[in-house]
Structures are given as C-alpha cells and as structure tokens.
Amino acid sequence: MERAGTPAIAIITEPFRATAEAMTLAWGMTGYPFLATPHPIANLGDKDLDERADRLLDAVEILLSQRRTSA
C-alpha cells in the first residue's frame, strides 16, 4: 500500500515483533510502523477482537496521520 502511495501500518501480535522488524529490513522499509497486540488472537470471538481493535484505534490514527504528513 505504501509503495502505491497509500499510507499504511501493520498490526501484529507480540511474539512476531522481531519478525516484523526483520521484514521491514528485508523489504527495504526500515522503520516501517507497526503496532503489536497481545497474542493469541486466533481463538478470540468477534466481541474480543473488536475490543482489541478499539484499544489500537488511537495509535492507528496517529501513525496513519504521521504517514500522510511525511508522504
């Protein structure tokens, strides 16, 4: 999305933080923003997933706003 000109961020679960950082380096996008949420999420129902998303919303808006400003 970023390369197509649309500001974006990634959301991962905590155990994948090191992998996310390695991927940003491998893809030549050092410093690419991502947010981490507690693991696991696969066993959560819609209500719990919505609550997790709601807790990330402010940070998502801030990061996307920063991406738009720097673009």
- pLDDT below 50 for ≥5 consecutive residues: which ranges? none
Topology, number of strands: 2
Pattern of helices and strands: EHEH
* pLDDT averaged over residues: 91
General description of the model:
The protein is globular. It is mainly alpha-helical and 71 residues long. The protein has helices spanning 17-26, 46-70; strands spanning 10-13, 34-37. A two-stranded parallel ribbon has the order 1-2. It has one domain (10-70). 49% of the residues lie in helices and 11% in strands.
Short structural summary:
The protein has 71 residues and is mainly alpha-helical. It is built from two helices and two strands. The chain has one domain.
Describe the protein's topology.
Elements: E1 10-13, H1 17-26, E2 34-37, H2 46-70
Parallel strand pairs: 1-2
Search tags:
71 residues; mainly alpha
